[in-house]
């Protein structure tokens, strides 16, 4: 029997039982669509998180006080701090030619008031370098004065949300706001940057680092944000930071440097694994669909005993009967897989339309894998009924026994 | 006529286990069938006549004895090769026609040719000839459900003869037909016999049985009468 005749015969058999065929197609279709949708979500999450990191600014290094002895991972929130980072430490870093911006950071919260309105806001003490390091833009006004950072000046930049809450639509430049017990003049408003790794830059007030030191009465820095002069200079910058701080800290290596690269890498790995796991879970639904194929085909074989007996009487060898039923199963699985591909990809399209911030997209490996899995599911689970059909005794099959 | 029989059965036995009982469907049956024979096999139900036909058609296997087809010893031939012998040498006619309901008359007739791997264009010509020869040309695209019993059995005959097999085995070919269609079908089969095909008909209709040149009677798995 020629392959095209086998295919045609199987196709006719599937057409003859539309209900049964539709049921199996639906099961395969849902299985494949599930794989595509779930892996797309996983991949979307991965791309989202990486995007968030890149929103932090490129070539970024974060210097934290304290040494984490654990390797390869979590930021050192735990652990003792033998020596604080100071403003002088930060300024000393500027000596390295591999370093472009150094932004010392002091973080705290204080009530910010204008006229009768008051809000509890995160206050960030830093230098003008913060804006270039975190790639922040000004919507209005000017940046912090580029003077000696050790000198406190009573000026501030408002985040967009803070500005709107305190001033409504009134102009804020030149106005005086009260932060804690002191008065600061508004010299600029930050352009909305939105969420970036949990810190909402628009719901924040930036003041000079020396002013923040006075405001919170804290001499030490929360952290230092450093940018390397280029991507290639990152290792050199990291080395320089360690060396400079060690010199200043009596030869002790008591800081932790987090490179954005390694963070991205870690999250990339974690979320990549998550996507695989989601794909695996979805693949189980394909196996379930495969078992459905097997059951429905077993029923089909027992219903079509007379036909199988006839084929044998007409001289179809066992191998030919086997091939016919395997072709049916594979046809079903492939068609179901194709439908599932269409359904899954449309689902991804709809999802992306519905949630524009989040861009789900199916990884290529998931597309290939789902197609291969459907094919082999059909072959595997079709083989048991097909074998049963092929082994039927022609005399018994002809009489429908 | 060739002296060597087309089929030679020697002491063929076939037993079935029904519950605790062993039923001897064929009990030491020896039979020579010559090319061009017209044989009827008659007997009460359960006498083993259908089993004999299945045995002749290589659908069933012997428990003892030997089977020769055109001088070839086929008793222990494996199923794959038995299928090929069936395909090329034996046509079957069944009481319930055994047409595949989803296929048209033409496609049902075509089936044995499809199994041989013959190209579609060649098949079309042969099928058309066969259907025309049996007065079914205008029914080629009808499905079995759209055909009368007599027409269905004619389609089945076209299918059984499309390979020009030398042996035609009919198991109660008129069992599901009215008397008019019965006569028609029997006449077609006898015409084929006249043209040289070897015809074996299992029936319990004595009128039809009597028409055969050689009449075999079976009781309890034994041949008790063989005249002609």
Automatic annotation (TrEMBL), chain A:
<keyword id="KW-1003">Cell membrane</keyword>
<dbReference type="GO" id="GO:0022857">
    <property type="term" value="F:transmembrane transporter activity"/>
</dbReference>
<feature type="transmembrane region" description="Helical">
    <location>
        <begin position="322"/>
        <end position="351"/>
    </location>
</feature>
<keyword id="KW-0812">Transmembrane</keyword>
<dbReference type="InterPro" id="IPR050250">
    <property type="entry name" value="Macrolide_Exporter_MacB"/>
</dbReference>
<feature type="transmembrane region" description="Helical">
    <location>
        <begin position="363"/>
        <end position="382"/>
    </location>
</feature>
<dbReference type="GO" id="GO:0005886">
    <property type="term" value="C:plasma membrane"/>
</dbReference>
<dbReference type="Pfam" id="PF02687">
    <property type="entry name" value="FtsX"/>
</dbReference>
<dbReference type="InterPro" id="IPR003838">
    <property type="entry name" value="ABC3_permease_C"/>
</dbReference>
<feature type="domain" description="ABC3 transporter permease C-terminal">
    <location>
        <begin position="281"/>
        <end position="394"/>
    </location>
</feature>
<keyword id="KW-0472">Membrane</keyword>
<feature type="transmembrane region" description="Helical">
    <location>
        <begin position="276"/>
        <end position="301"/>
    </location>
</feature>
<feature type="domain" description="MacB-like periplasmic core">
    <location>
        <begin position="21"/>
        <end position="244"/>
    </location>
</feature>
<keyword id="KW-1133">Transmembrane helix</keyword>
<dbReference type="Pfam" id="PF12704">
    <property type="entry name" value="MacB_PCD"/>
</dbReference>
<feature type="transmembrane region" description="Helical">
    <location>
        <begin position="21"/>
        <end position="42"/>
    </location>
</feature>
<protein>
    <submittedName>
        <fullName>ABC transporter permease</fullName>
    </submittedName>
</protein>
<dbReference type="InterPro" id="IPR025857">
    <property type="entry name" value="MacB_PCD"/>
</dbReference>
<comment type="similarity">
    <text>Belongs to the ABC-4 integral membrane protein family.</text>
</comment>
From TrEMBL, chain B:
<dbReference type="InterPro" id="IPR027417">
    <property type="entry name" value="P-loop_NTPase"/>
</dbReference>
<dbReference type="GO" id="GO:0022857">
    <property type="term" value="F:transmembrane transporter activity"/>
</dbReference>
<dbReference type="Pfam" id="PF00005">
    <property type="entry name" value="ABC_tran"/>
</dbReference>
<keyword id="KW-0547">Nucleotide-binding</keyword>
<dbReference type="InterPro" id="IPR017871">
    <property type="entry name" value="ABC_transporter-like_CS"/>
</dbReference>
<dbReference type="GO" id="GO:1902495">
    <property type="term" value="C:transmembrane transporter complex"/>
</dbReference>
<dbReference type="InterPro" id="IPR003593">
    <property type="entry name" value="AAA+_ATPase"/>
</dbReference>
<keyword id="KW-0813">Transport</keyword>
<dbReference type="InterPro" id="IPR003439">
    <property type="entry name" value="ABC_transporter-like_ATP-bd"/>
</dbReference>
<dbReference type="GO" id="GO:0005886">
    <property type="term" value="C:plasma membrane"/>
</dbReference>
<dbReference type="GO" id="GO:0016887">
    <property type="term" value="F:ATP hydrolysis activity"/>
</dbReference>
<protein>
    <submittedName>
        <fullName>ABC transporter ATP-binding protein</fullName>
    </submittedName>
</protein>
<dbReference type="GO" id="GO:0005524">
    <property type="term" value="F:ATP binding"/>
</dbReference>
<dbReference type="InterPro" id="IPR017911">
    <property type="entry name" value="MacB-like_ATP-bd"/>
</dbReference>
<keyword id="KW-0067">ATP-binding</keyword>
<dbReference type="InterPro" id="IPR015854">
    <property type="entry name" value="ABC_transpr_LolD-like"/>
</dbReference>
<feature type="domain" description="ABC transporter">
    <location>
        <begin position="7"/>
        <end position="228"/>
    </location>
</feature>
<comment type="similarity">
    <text>Belongs to the ABC transporter superfamily. Macrolide exporter (TC 3.A.1.122) family.</text>
</comment>
């Amino acid at each position: 029997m020629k392959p095209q005749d086998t295919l045609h015969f199987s196709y006719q058999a599937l057409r003859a039982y539309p209900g049964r065929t539709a049921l199996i197609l639906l099961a395969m279709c849902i299985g494949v669509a599930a794989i595509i949708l779930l892996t797309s979500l996983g991949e979307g999450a991965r791309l989202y998180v990486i995007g968030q990191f890149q929103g932090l600014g490129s070539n970024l290094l974060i210097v934290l006080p304290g040494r984490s002895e654990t390797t390869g991972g979590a930021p050192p929130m735990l652990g003792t701090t033998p020596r604080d980072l100071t403003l002088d430490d930060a300024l000393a870093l500027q000596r390295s030619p591999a370093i472009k911006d150094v932004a010392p950071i002091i973080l705290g919260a204080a009530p910010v008031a204008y006229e009768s309105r008051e809000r509890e806001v995160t206050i960030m003490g830093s230098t003008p370098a913060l804006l270039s390091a975190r790639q922040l833009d000004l919507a209005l006004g000017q940046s912090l004065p580029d003077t000696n950072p050790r000198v406190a000046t009573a000026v501030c930049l408002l985040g967009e949300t803070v500005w709107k809450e305190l001033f409504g639509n009134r102009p804020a430049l030149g106005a005086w706001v009260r932060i804690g017990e002191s008065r600061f003049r508004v010299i600029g408003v930050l352009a909305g940057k939105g969420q970036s790794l949990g810190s909402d830059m628009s719901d924040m007030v930036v003041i000079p680092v020396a002013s923040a030191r006075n405001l919170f009465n804290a001499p030490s820095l929360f952290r230092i944000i450093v940018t390397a002069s280029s991507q290639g200079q990152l290792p050199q910058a990291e080395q320089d930071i360690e060396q400079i701080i060690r010199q200043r800290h009596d030869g002790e290596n008591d800081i932790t440097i987090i490179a954005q690269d390694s963070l991205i890498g870690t999250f990339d790995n974690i979320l990549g694994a998550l996507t695989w796991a989601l794909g695996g879970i979805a693949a189980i639904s394909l196996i379930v669909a495969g078992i459905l194929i097997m059951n429905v085909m077993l029923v089909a074989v027992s219903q079509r005993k007379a036909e199988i007996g006839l084929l044998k009487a007409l001289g179809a060898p066992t191998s030919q009967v086997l091939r016919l039923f395997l072709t049916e199963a594979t046809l079903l699985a492939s068609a179901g897989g194709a439908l599932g591909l269409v359904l899954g990809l449309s689902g991804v399209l709809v999802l992306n339309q519905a949630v524009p911030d989040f861009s789900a997209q199916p990884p290529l490996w998931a597309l290939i894998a789902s197609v291969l899995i459907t094919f082999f599911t059909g072959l595997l689970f079709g083989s048991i009924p097909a074998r049963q059909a092929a082994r039927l005794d022609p005399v018994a099959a002809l009489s429908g026994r | 006529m060739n002296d060597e029989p087309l089929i030679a059965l020697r002491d063929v036995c076939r037993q079935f286990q029904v519950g605790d009982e062993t039923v001897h469907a064929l009990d030491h049956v020896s039979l020579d069938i010559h090319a061009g024979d017209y044989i009827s096999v008659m007997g009460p139900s359960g006498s083993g006549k259908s089993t004999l036909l299945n045995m002749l058609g290589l659908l069933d296997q012997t428990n003892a004895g030997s089977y020769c087809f055109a001088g070839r010893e086929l008793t222990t031939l494996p199923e794959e090769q038995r299928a090929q012998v069936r395909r090329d040498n034996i046509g079957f006619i069944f009481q319930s026609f055994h047409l595949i309901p989803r296929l048209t008359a033409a496609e049902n007739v075509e089936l044995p040719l499809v199994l041989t791997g013959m190209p579609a264009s060649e098949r079309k010509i042969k099928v058309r000839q066969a259907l025309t020869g049996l007065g079914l040309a205008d029914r080629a695209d009808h499905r079995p459900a759209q055909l009368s019993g007599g027409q269905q059995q004619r389609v089945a005959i076209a299918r059984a003869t499309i390979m020009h097999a030398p042996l035609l085995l009919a198991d109660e070919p008129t069992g599901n037909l009215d008397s008019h269609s019965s006569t028609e079908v029997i006449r077609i089969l006898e015409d084929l016999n006249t043209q040289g095909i070897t015809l074996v008909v299992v029936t319990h209709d004595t009128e039809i049985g009597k028409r055969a040149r050689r009449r075999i009677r079976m009781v309890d798995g034994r041949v008790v009468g063989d005249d002609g």
